[in-house]
Amino acid sequence: MSDPAPPVGVLAIDAGNSKTDVALVGTDGRVLGTARGGSFRPHAVGAETAVAGLVPLVEAASTAAGVPPGTRPFAEHVSACLANADLPAEYAALESALSAHGWGRSTEVNNDTLGLLRAGLDEPRGVAVVCGAGINCAALLPDGRSAGFAAVGHISGDWGGGGNLWQEAMWWAARAEDGRGPQTRLRTALPEHVGLTSMAELIEAVHLGRLTETECLDLTPVLFTVAEEGDLVADAVVRRQAEEVVALAVAAMRRLGVDGEPIDVVLGGGVLAAERPGLMRRIDALLAEQAPLARWHVVRTPPVAGAALLGLDRIGASQQARARLRAHYA
Q1: 3-state secondary structure of 138
Q2: Helix boundaries (H) for 257-294
Q3: CA diameter of the chain
Q4: Cβ pair 184, 234 in contact under 8 A
Q5: Would 286 be classed as within a structural domain?
Q6: In terms of DSSP bridges, do strands 135-140 and 104-111 run parallel, antiparallel, or are they unpaired?
């Protein structure tokens, strides 16, 4: 006979631009129930509407965990690591909306980058750079000090991420086609990828909404493939992406005064998790120049595990509980 389920210690939520994962974790680190849903975009629909979209996922995970319907609260702590939670007002609105559902005795909202950071580290000390549809960075030290960025796009100094890279690739390809810029293989590779014959056709398809957001994002890997084939224009874009990743990481280290110390830099998100050779080689070289004691690695553990670990940290769970959670996601 299996051991009885422990009390629910953490309701962990990792909500991103492309998907949302929910996990109920026992006080002993056992994963009791999970659910997956779509994107989380409070900046577009408002905090309350975005959080309302989490309700079916929480209910599905609760059912899987054997939580009686209507139980409130059922978790000691709600640990939510959310994309598009960037500014203090956004944190406050999201925390209020989550708390209103009464799922946990306490609630904490962090940016999803912090979930990635905790997923990639055995202790809360390091820097994380996430490069998926967007780009962001967070750093955390054991004494509670942290560093982050507004990360709301061009107006907050951001550049890069898959959502920017495919547009940058199109910018250069369009100029190659009409004569305003240097020639690049992107001019033919991008339209070919979606079954079109010219940049003019691709521009029209994007402008008129004939391509979905996912289809547009799928143009980003084409940029890396063309760069790896030796195309100078594409390679320059990839080089700038590497520079942005390192600029974020090193700026966070300097703000915390740890740029001269050994520290882990964890990398995640679709663009970085793909580990394109040219991009990773440049990141490695730039970090070696600017923060020689930093050690980087790509995170394979799902970010929802990071949200759960942050929750276990908060409720004072044992090291054995943390190890059990990690083993589940290994």
Answers
A1: strand
A2: 270-273, 277-290
A3: 73
A4: yes
A5: yes
A6: unpaired
* Distance from C-alpha of 160 to C-alpha of 104, rounded to nearest angstrom: 36
Q: Are residues 150 and 282 in the same domain?
A: yes
Considering the entire predicted model, what is its pTM?
0.89
Domain that holds residue 72: 8-118+301-329
| 186: amino acid identity, one letter | L
Domain count for the chain, please give it.
Answer: 2
Whether residue 227 is found in the same domain as residue 281: yes
Q: How buried is residue 179: exposed, middle or buried, by Cβ count under 10 Å (0-12/13-18/19+)? A: exposed
* CB-based contact 54:15 (threshold 8 Å): yes
Q: Supply the DSSP symbol for 112.
A: H
pLDDT digits (tens, 9 = 90+) for 43-94: 889 999 999 999 999 999 999 999 999 999 999 999 999 988 989 999 999 9
Structure-token pair, residue 88 = 């203090």
Asked whether residue 241 falls in the same domain as residue 172, the answer is yes
Q: What are the beta bridge partners of residue 131?
A: 135
Residue 14 sits in a domain whose CATH number is 3.30.420.40
